[in-house]
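Exercise 7b. Backbone tokens:
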């Protein structure tokens, strides 16, 4: 699921956890999410990109951010 997109279903406040839905085909998978940058917030309906999985939550960034893999 890394670098795939999900849609925020429960708003994510800075430094907190939220929820998103990852859709693959006809299946929806709920995810616990946290922002990579702890100062970011995401509202319901925002598209986010999954970057990593740590401590029971997926780390995400805004899907419209340019992501460069080094």
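Sequence design result:
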């Amino acid at each position: 699921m890394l670098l795939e997109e999900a849609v925020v279903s429960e708003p994510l406040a800075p430094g907190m956890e939220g929820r998103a839905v990852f859709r693959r085909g006809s299946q929806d998978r709920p995810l616990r999410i946290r922002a990579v940058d702890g100062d970011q917030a995401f509202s319901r309906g925002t598209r986010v990109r999954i970057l990593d999985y740590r401590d029971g939550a997926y780390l995400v960034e805004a899907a419209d951010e340019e992501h460069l893999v080094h």
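Instructor comment: The chain is about 0% helix and 50% strand. Residues 5-62 form a domain with the OB fold (Dihydrolipoamide Acetyltransferase, E2P) fold (CATH 2.40.50.140).
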